[in-house]
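Hey, can you fold this one?
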Amino acid sequence: MGKKLNSIKSVPLVVDTSYAPLNTSFYIKSAADQVLEQWYDEANMVYRPDRASTEPLTLIPVLTLYDTDTGATLPTNAFTVVWKEIKENNGTVIDSGDVTDITDTVTIDGQTYRVYTVNTDGTLIVRRNVPVGWSYRLRCILTYTDARTGDTITMQDEVMLITNKTEDAAYIFSLTTERRITYRPLINSVSNGAVTVQNVQFGAKLLLGGNEVQGAKYFWYWVDPTHVNGVLFGDTTTPCAAYVSGQNTQTLTLNPDRTDGLTVMVMAGSDSTQATPDVPVREYFSLQVVYDEVGGEVASTNGCRLKSGMTSMYFKELLKVKDRDMPDAIRDEYIRLNWKSKKASLSTVNDEGWGMDVTLERSKLTSSAGDTVLVYPEITILGAMDYLTDDSPGGSGLLTDDSPGGSGYVLGRV
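Sure. Predicted structure:
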């Protein structure tokens, strides 16, 4: 051990050990093909759907937790729920309470069931019909413990069950898929070391008086501030690159890597002969595209000092997305680097070219002995694939590949 000559105080590094709050989302959805409204046929004294018989309603609590520190979606199987029923008659609250305290029963095929059953996964089974003029609000209060901190997070959502008379029946859409889908290109699009994009789907079913409208024709549109009335998917004049298939059917299929986000609208024709929608009802869906935070640091296999005898130095960028190493496939598909160098004694920034790495000759790195040089890239994240256009004066607009076997409109990242 060497001799201690004097004591030198070092400036400490302050380390923040707190966690960033979780991004949370919670809502209630019904099982596929189920609706919250009922219809009552007074002439035949029949409910449609008949929840107290063969068509119970399943309500599902949907919790999403996103850790902004790691960029990971956390498992959501460790939560508890309390379901409450609030009865209203013509807008006046008559009664409310925990569904587990409600002991009413129904008999179905000789088997007795309670009108409410809470499963171990938090789903609620409803075997109760709502009388005309009443509404039953079903509120789900969810409690989750953040495993990182031990903090308790409480959220709630509710749905309303009502019944219409059949003579007042109106068209409605029953959604058969999620209403909102989020796609994260820098995280979701890699599989087994390659960029692999999974298509997404939106679906709806047209009902009248609780029954599916057979032979209905479905019209799917994309909507934005410029096209507030919507543009049909598949339209060749104003095409949408994300469209895959599904126009005129119940299910629309989209490629999420070909849009920076879409609002989708569905309307319907009462039968397959309709050229335009004739049913006065519409539903909306949302495809959100989120580009996660990208960062990195420059590294060199030659170290960080230009030594005597070196003729050049090699640099590369160690990229991260949400503090995790970025897969090479994602980097090559979505990232472009424009390298720069700047000598500390000068204000000039030099362009050193595009690429995932760069080699600089000694002359680029020296001006006088001891001068410091900054070497870094400007990081560009490429957007979605889209149809390319020639917007120059007299340009042709959408670029097309009309060669034999050509692909039609030309796609590229923008």
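Residues 328-334 form the longest helix (7 residues). Let me know if you want another pass with a different chain boundary.
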